[in-house]
Amino acid sequence: MVNIMFTLEWFETYVNKIQFNAKTVQDMDNYRWFPMNSGGGYKKWYGNNSTIIDLENNGMRIKQSNTNYRLRNDKYYFKDGITWGRITSADLSFRKSRQGSLFGDAGPMLFISKENEDLMYYILGLANSKVIWQMSSVINPTLNFQIVDFKNIPVVKRTLIEKEVSSLVRNCIKLTKSDEESNELSWEFKKHILL
User: Fold this and answer.
1) For residues 5 and 37, what is the distance between their CA atoms, to the nearest angstrom?
2) Given this model, what pLDDT does residue 152 score?
3) Are 46 and 173 in contact (CB under 8 A)?
4) Residues 6+ apart with CB under 8 A from 7
């Protein structure tokens, strides 16, 4: 777990110290804070983007502290993927993680290569289905849904429906993202829904 002193909500610091759109580790220079998936409440498809983590100078403050925290392999920093809240008291909800975000203990990620983008959306659609909810309660009936639990879910790749499911999931993400853009606490806020 990251000590609370190393994470903030994005609106608790100067916005010019946050790198929202990093693609590689080299994009971290001159910034202190970076978006991090940290679980959050139940929300499917997209969202719960509000937590940032202090990784200035390659996480120097974290490394110098006495916290029991392991910095993740930086070759996976800022990649697209599927994230979820590891700890849940109700239904699971899986989301597409935006590029430019990091993953944490409470917000793990599943990575799929860019060449298989339709597969990522296909798996996200499967993950948010009732089938997976039933399977997850058998695979791991606890409140923690781990990466290993995700790996243990069988996926039957159906090329004929993959594109159709991918298209439907992309539309769900688009709708959820527009909802996120009307949330005043989101860093993607554009306009209040009533205006």
Assistant:
1) 16
2) 78
3) yes
4) 36, 38, 51, 52, 53, 54
- The string of pLDDT tens digits covering residues 111-129 is 887 778 888 999 999 889 8
Q: How far is C-alpha 114 from the chain's CA centre?
A: 16
- How many Å apart are CA 9 and CA 180, to the nearest integer? 15
Q: Is the dihedral of CA 122, 100, 70, 5 positive or negative?
A: negative
Query: Two tokens at 91?
Result: 């239904």
CA–CA separation, 70 and 76 (whole Å)? 14
Q: How confident is the model at residue 174 (pLDDT cuts 50, 70, 90)?
A: very high
CB neighbours of residue 4 within 10 Å: 8
**How many Å apart are CA 20 and CA 22, to the nearest integer?**
6
59-86 pLDDT, tens digit each: 888 888 776 666 677 888 888 899 988 7
Q: What tokens does 157 get?
A: 């790749």
Sheet containing strand 81-84, strands side by side: 94-97, 81-84, 109-110
Q: What angle do CA 165, 168, 171 make, to 5 degrees?
A: 150
Nearest CA-CA partner of 59 in 37, 101, 28, 20: 28
